[in-house]
Specification:
Elements: E1 2-3, H1 12-31, H2 37-44, H3 48-51, H4 53-76, H5 78-98, H6 102-114, H7 118-129, H8 132-163, H9 168-171, H10 173-187, E2 193-194, H11 201-219, H12 221-224, H13 229-250, H14 265-293, H15 306-312, H16 314-334, H17 337-356, H18 361-388, H19 395-423, H20 433-454, H21 469-478
Antiparallel strand pairs: 1-2
Helix pairs in contact: 1-7, 1-8, 1-10, 4-5, 4-6, 4-11, 4-19, 5-6, 5-7, 5-10, 7-8, 7-19, 8-15, 8-16, 8-18, 11-13, 11-19, 14-15, 14-17, 14-18, 14-19, 14-20, 16-18, 17-18, 17-20, 18-19, 19-20
Length: 479
């Protein structure tokens, strides 16, 4: 690790405000399109399966690019990479806003998704340069913004589409994104922390092909069938490529995703929880709006407009922000593990409620509130758990890996529940009530498994010095 002389740091609150603006702008772009997919499908003249890739391609791109950007930030400077990523995000957002065909829209969305490195870069800047007493709380808020931005996007999508058009789903985030990009370039000095190295591009290509193939297989199951030859062949191909990716990473001198780091108990357990929570969180972006927008003549649903569907998720957004902001205080008193377990348990309970009872509006509001509080607590805590288990030099890669596993879980979750619903469509053209029950139950089971895995995470008090390389380096530096 190389440390240069740090530039004069602006007030930490200014830096944090700019990082938060960039993070929430990215998160908004992640979810704004979800409730508007039917509108975009009609406007672009495409099919349901094809338009779903506007969300899936975004998540897939984020999964692949996030570890790359985390590594490049460690090598060349986090602020520098953050500005580059934000400029590309602005350009891609303009492309998506102007798109009149699905192909052009997908190009914009792929580049937008690649900006997922905003979160590990922001977390790395906070970890490297903020006072120690501010780190846990600020990381908690930045991490919660991933979910808060997603929830706010769901709420805002309806009014934007109803009063303007789907193009403004992309124009409006630029109002915050462009000034934030300029301000970060002007007022946030470069980090003094550097980690020399190189990027394993072969590994990145294997990861992209493997994940892409598996996601295609899952997303095509409504038309191909779960056990069809096409699904099996594409799925097996993707899994074999992913196995080759793991082999490549294991034998690489400078892996993109450090598999040795994954052997640390606190890292692999936390990342597994992230995968399962991502499954649950991103699934809610598809399941809840579609359920409440279904007309009552289908035998369920509330016939809500796109705007009304967003209001059903408003409690989730508010709870997510509040819970994420409180995580820092909870961690100082109890450590990072209890908030993570509590958050995962609340999320699992939310889906259990939806699987059992969802005929009344208040039941949807309650489930959304529980889900938001759970995701807010868990997302903030898991990042700090990762940081506690790695050295400062590994922060960018480690937090990037955590973001990747969360996004991969989201991509699989969204594709899986969409397939469950598509497979249950009845003659009237709507998924069956049983299809929603199965989808909600699948999410409850996935997140409940996250609680069980979370129990294996070593507690802060129980960790030995060898299990906590990040703490070891900090103590050495203090001596």
């Amino acid at each position: 690790m190389i440390a240069t002389e740090p530039a004069a740091r602006q007030h930490y609150d200014v830096t944090f405000a700019l990082l938060a603006a960039a993070a929430i702008s990215y998160a908004l772009l992640q979810s704004l399109v979800a409730p508007a997919l039917p509108e975009i499908q009609h406007a672009l003249g495409t099919s349901v399966n094809s338009v779903s890739w506007i969300l899936t391609a975004y998540l897939l791109s984020a999964s692949i690019a996030t570890p790359l950007i985390g590594r490049l930030g460690d090598m060349y400077g986090k602020e520098k990479l953050l500005v580059i990523v934000l400029v590309l995000l602005c350009i891609a957002t303009v492309v998506s806003a102007l798109a009149t065909t699905l192909a052009v829209m997908l190009v914009g969305r792929v580049v937008q998704g690649a900006a997922g490195g905003v979160f590990p870069l922001a977390i790395g800047i906070i970890r490297d340069e903020f006072p120690r007493e501010k780190v846990a709380g600020r990381i908690g808020i930045i991490s919660a913004l991933a979910g808060v931005g997603g929830g706010v996007g769901i709420v805002l999508a309806g009014p934007i589409v109803d009063h303007l058009s789907y193009h403004w789903l992309f124009w409006l985030p630029l109002v915050a994104l462009v000034p934030a990009t300029i301000a970060i370039r002007l007022y946030v000095p470069e980090s003094p922390v550097r980690v020399p190295g190189r990027v394993n591009w072969v590994s990145a290509a294997l990861m992209a092909v493997g994940l892409g193939a598996v996601l295609i297989a899952v997303s095509k199951t409504p038309s191909w069938g779960w056990l069809s030859a096409e699904t099996v062949v594409v799925m097996v191909f993707g899994l074999l490529v992913l196995a080759a990716w793991v082999y490549s990473e294991t034998h690489s001198a400078e892996p993109l995703v450090d598999m040795k780091m994954m052997r640390i108990r606190g890292v692999w357990t936390t990342n597994t929880v992230a995968l399962l929570l991502g499954f649950g969180m991103y699934s809610s972006f598809i399941l809840l709006p579609q359920y409440v927008e279904t007309p009552e003549k289908a035998g369920y649903g509330f016939g809500a407009t796109v705007t009304g569907a967003g209001l059903f998720l408003l409690p989730s957004t508010v709870a997510m922000l509040f819970a994420g902001a409180q995580t820092g205080r909870l961690e100082k008193r109890f450590g990072s593990k209890p908030p993570l377990l509590a958050g995962a348990a609340l999320s699992a309970l939310s889906y259990a409620v939806l699987a059992a009872e969802r005929d009344e509006r208040w039941e949807i509001y309650l489930a959304a509130l529980l889900l938001g509080a759970g995701i807010g607590l868990a997302f903030a805590a898991m990042v700090n758990l990762i940081i506690e288990n790695v050295s400062p030099a590994q922060t960018g890669v480690a937090t990037g890996m955590n973001a990747v596993t969360r996004t991969v879980g989201g991509a699989f979750g969204g594709a899986a529940v969409a397939s469950i619903l598509a497979s249950s469509v009845e003659a009237a053209g709507f998924p069956s009530a049983h299809g929603f029950t199965v989808a909600f139950a699948a999410c409850a089971i996935a997140v409940a498994c996250g609680v069980l895995v979370g129990l294996l995470i070593p507690s802060r008090q129980a960790m030995t010095l060898a299990e906590r390389p990040g703490l070891h380096m900090r103590r050495r530096s203090e001596v």
